[in-house]
Design a protein that fits this description.
Helix content is 28%, strand content 35%. Strand 13 and strand 14 form a beta hairpin. The protein has a five-stranded antiparallel beta sheet, with no helix packed on it. It is α+β, with helices and mostly antiparallel strands and 414 residues long. The chain has three domains: 126 residues, Alpha-Beta Plaits (2-Layer Sandwich); 90 residues, Sandwich (Immunoglobulin-like); 78 residues, SH3 type barrels. Helix 3 runs antiparallel to helix 4. The termini are far apart. It contains five helices and 20 strands.
Length: 414
């Protein structure tokens, strides 16, 4: 084989090898592509299964969370628990004339039920805002579907609020207490801030004015005695109520006692001498509340020396000395006195002295049912059966002046 033939053979062989290689490569690449497609499809199916599993797990957790926050599955338990919680919340807020009732129940039995309640209350904007804050601080499955607020009448801060509330009951929920789950959507500081903003920017009322507290003069009190200071306050808003307090650090034992809507007493019994300062505050219940304070000084001084009091007499025998009777014998009267404390029987005549206990005097008259005792310028009449201290003071009769004797006719003629 010459060189030309060898070149042709080499070329033909190369082409043949290339064709065979291309055929083999095409077959292999097709198989590889098919396998890659199958792998991709399987991976896609696996990803879809994983996604569904994650969603199922997430749904399971969400359902468990919903059951943790839902009302009990039975309508009776759900209504009993939630109605009790709602009534307690309304009572704690202090609304006037509250009315809470069940409107209706909707839903799919065996799956979920929606209980609807109607609430109607009268209260201040502060109370209504506090109610909403407390309501949404609880993470139970409930919401206020509708809220209507009516402006107050003239001269009043009382709003009328009507609302429709919905609460959800789920199958499988076995809760025994409502209101014990905190909300995860809002926190307490946010609610308190919102409450402050709403109350401070009330568009239902004019701005609340601070109460007025009258000046209190400087006081002086003896150590050991009780200081009582009457404070008087007033409020430009006639519908507000006032409360009195001692802010800061009042002296030990000091207290304030409310006497009426506008008056209070500050009471204090100091134990040490010195100069003290007491601060009194009066606060209204407006929205927001306003406070005014007054400070006054108290000088505690040494009490005056104690003067020994005259010793009180002991038991008075005169109080137990009774006139038991009077007796006339031979034209002479006698008065009988029974001194019970001594067991003595005194028999006295007119002109005799009577000296028993605190009574010292002279028997001036004896009659059939009484005697008269004279002590100095005082005359006392004691009746039979009376003690000599129970006698009645009577006026001393003027002295009897004897009338002039008429002169005889003979004397007159002489």
């Amino acid at each position: 084989m010459n060189s030309k033939e060898r070149l042709i053979a080499t070329t033909v062989g190369t082409v043949a090898v290339a064709i065979v290689g291309w055929i083999v490569w095409s077959h292999v690449s097709t198989q590889l592509a098919t396998k890659h497609d199958n792998i991709a499809k399987q991976q896609q199916l696996l990803n879809e299964q994983n996604r569904k599993q994650r969603e199922g797990s997430k749904a399971t957790k969400k359902l468990a969370d919903l059951k943790r926050r839902a009302l009990p599955e039975t309508r009776e338990d759900a209504n009993a628990f939630y109605n009790a919680w709602l009534l307690d919340l309304v009572a704690r807020i202090g609304f006037q004339s509250p009315s809470v009732g069940v409107a209706d129940t909707r839903g799919k039995p065996g799956t979920f039920q929606t209980l609807r309640y109607t609430v109607e209350v009268f209260g201040t904007l502060d109370q209504l805002t506090t109610f909403l804050s407390e309501f949404y601080a609880v993470g139970d499955l409930h919401r206020i579907q509708q809220l209507t607020v009516s402006p107050p009448n003239a001269g009043s801060r009382m709003l009328k609020a009507s609302m429709t509330i919905e609460a959800l009951s789920l199958q499988g929920c076995q809760r025994k207490q409502i209101g014990d789950v905190a909300s995860e959507r809002v926190n307490r500081p946010e609610l308190d801030l919102l409450r402050q903003v709403v109350v401070d920017r009330s568009f239902f009322f004019p701005a609340n004015e601070a109460p007025k507290l009258d000046e209190i003069a400087q006081q002086t009190v003896f150590r050991g005695s009780t200081l009582t200071v009457v404070a008087t306050a007033s409020d430009p808003d006639p519908w507000d109520t006032l409360e009195f307090s001692l802010p800061g650090t009042p002296p030990d034992g000091a207290e304030v006692v409310k006497r009426s809507q506008t008056e209070a007493e500050v009471r204090w019994s100091p134990k040490e001498n010195g100069e003290y300062e007491i601060e009194l505050a009066v606060t209204d219940n407006g929205s927001p509340s306003r406070t005014e304070t007054r400070k006054f000084k108290v000088n505690v001084v040494e009490p005056p020396p104690v003067v020994a009091a005259e010793r009180a007499p002991g038991f008075d025998d005169a109080s137990q000395t009774f006139l038991v009777g009077t007796l006339a014998s031979g034209g002479e009267w006698r008065a009988w006195f029974n001194v019970r404390t001594r067991g003595d029987l005194l028999k006295l005549r007119v002109g005799d002295s009577l000296n028993v206990g605190t009574i010292t005097g002279t028997i001036d008259l004896i009659a059939d049912n009484h005697v008269e005792i004279v002590a100095g310028d005082a005359r006392t009449r004691v009746r039979v059966g009376q003690s000599i201290t129970d006698g009645k003071q009577i006026e001393t009769p003027p002295p009897v002046q004897q009338a002039e004797q008429p002169q005889s006719t003979d004397a007159a003629s002489s």
